[in-house]
Amino acid sequence: MRKIAYAQAALEALQEEFRRDDRIVHMATDIPIELREEFGEERVRATPISESVFVGAAIGLAGSGYRAIADIRMATFGFVAMDQMVNQAAKITYMFGGQARFPILIRMSIGAGMSMAAQHSISPYSMYMNIPGLKIILPATAYDVKGLLKSALRDNNPVISFEHSTLSTLIGEVPEEEYIVPLGRANIKKEGTDVTVVGLSRMVHEALAVAEEMAKQGISVEVIDPRTLVPLDRETIRNSVAKTGRLVVVDEACQTCSAASEIISLIVEDDNIFRRLKAPPRRVCGLDVPIPYSPPMERYVIPSRARISAAVRQVF
Amino acid sequence: MAIDNNTLVRLYRTMLTIRRFEERASKEYKKGSVPGLVHSYIGQEAVATGVCANLRKDDRIVSNHRGHGHLIAKGADIRRMMAEIYGKKSGYCKGKGGSMHIADFGIGILGANGIVAAGLPIATGAALAAHLEGKNRIAVVFFGDGACQEGEFQESLNLASIWKLPIIFACENNMYGVNTAATYAIAGGEIPRRAAAYDMPVKSVDGNDIEAVYETAKEVVTEVRAGGGPYFVEFKTYRWHGHFEADTIPDLRPVEEIEAWKKKCPIACLEQRLLKAGILTGQDIKKIDTQVMAMIEEAVTYAVESPLPAPEDALEDVYSA
User: Which fold has domain B5-301?
Assistant: First the structure.
């Protein structure tokens, strides 16, 4: 199969959906050149640095029969558009009694690892998981980013895609032919029998690397990538933990009230699975500090393979 | 009078419908028949009426927390509005939104909105849709003087201007944000100057003079529809009631000021002119009021008799299919 970069796969998703549906409009401060060249300046619009208004305009477009993409770039910039995302996009379908659809795709990059410091590094998806009305995707591979963005662009709800900055150059297999990845379907990245490791975003790759190491020591790790946080494929995670009896969740976001916390809650609240647990589940998360600038500190606060390995050993 | 008689009578009837609707909503709120919050539009009826009378059914509006007047003027069904305020399943939003969130997408009402200035970006998007559709539709957003100090106001005027979008920014300057005077809150004092700085034409009119509102809106709508880009209109007006109908926030505005504005009642002013010009008789006026009151009564009956939603209906409509 051909191999392309994550960013290229994401672009292909947009190009294909733009060709398929001429009511899609793209708004961003930095326009994707390829998209502009093919689809023109009316549909691929450059905005001023005004996140609130272009996210709000995406809502107005969507409520008027269009399908809008608002690319905010960094999740940290998204905070200036919180009113439009949280009070408006997430709630108005509901508040208006379901009488209108708001098909909106909001893209934001997340994560640390590039010495960009706290105002350019954050993984805030769990904050948005607490807001009913939003769907949340977390693509970790080139294949998934293309397939999930295509699904998001066919969904009739606001969908936020959180894409890790360091993944944009990641090369992966992406078929030439059309495909989508449905929202709400986790991917078992590696089957195993002894312990379930759920990895989020870039941590999927770290979990896989640790799983390989563990295999050499005779520990069979099952690695799961939920791929979407809302809706969350609870069944795949539950089934896996029911089988292995052990769970570690690896999430680069800060630990408090994290997606990792939510995933562990859904396991320990399940009577059947709780009885089958062989050890308390563990979280491996970002430390509860803003992301620091200097590389040794930055490496320290985000989950490392050593911390993941240690957590896996602790559940035995 | 440049406005034909039929139109004047129509404007009168719409204003009176808003007034009677609001009086009843207020009364029922104070009686405890309806929950939540009700923000009264009494005193400002001419603005919604005069602007919306110049709109097509497929033009889109975005309203705000004080939105009943805009919805009625745009043609919303007052029975379903009242039912929504009562929290009934037959309401516009099945009881999920209430007074501040009534919408009717079928007639271009993209919703009232509980966050000050939040409707401006959404309306800007509706105007972008109108631009892309190429059917000469326009968008209108109603907001108060209080919204002009929000960032979303600045961002929206700027974006609408650089994209030359077909939108009317209809600012109802009722002189107060809750109890904070616009004269205190607005640097420079004059809101239209701000809009002008975003390179769009501006007008400022007496928002209690329905004829002035209607004529101004007509001219502005025509210009925006013809592709002239965004337009900003300030309507100087006043709300008779406090910020909302609850007494949790006292009305701190000077009593003399409130009384002076009541003398400039937009409905009474038009009524006097209609009588003076012989367009309507006292008998006609009475008849219209009786008809309007009957409609309001019917809306209240509809609301009262409609079933409440089932508690578990709360779980529906979070997502669209």
Answer: Rossmann fold (3.40.50)
Residue B38: its pLDDT value, please?
93
Q: Is B96 on the interface with A (CB under 8 A)?
A: yes
The residues with which A224 forms a beta bridge, in sequence order, are: A188, A198
CB atoms within 10 A of CB A33: 10
Look up residue B118 and give its DSSP letter: T
A159 touches chain B (CB under 8 A): no
Among B residues 187-216, those touching chain A with beta carbons less than 8 Å apart: none
B220: its two tokens: 């502005």
pLDDT score recorded for residue B317: 98
Q: Check whether A251 has a pLDDT greater than 90.
A: yes
Residue A239: inside a domain: yes
CA atoms within 13 A on the CB side of A212: 7
**ipTM of this complex prediction, to 2 decimal places:** 0.96
Q: Do B127 and A60 touch (CB under 8 A)?
A: yes
Q: For residue range A80-111, list pLDDT tens digits in order.
A: 999 999 999 999 999 999 999 999 999 999 99
- Domain residues for the domain of A113 are 3-173
* CATH number for the domain that contains residue A246: 3.40.50.920
* Chain A positions in Cβ-Cβ contact with residue B125 (cut-off 8 Å): 56-64, 68
Cβ atoms of residues B98 and B309 within 8 Å: no
Q: Any chain A CB within 8 A of the CB of B310?
A: no
pLDDT > 70 in chain A, percent: 100
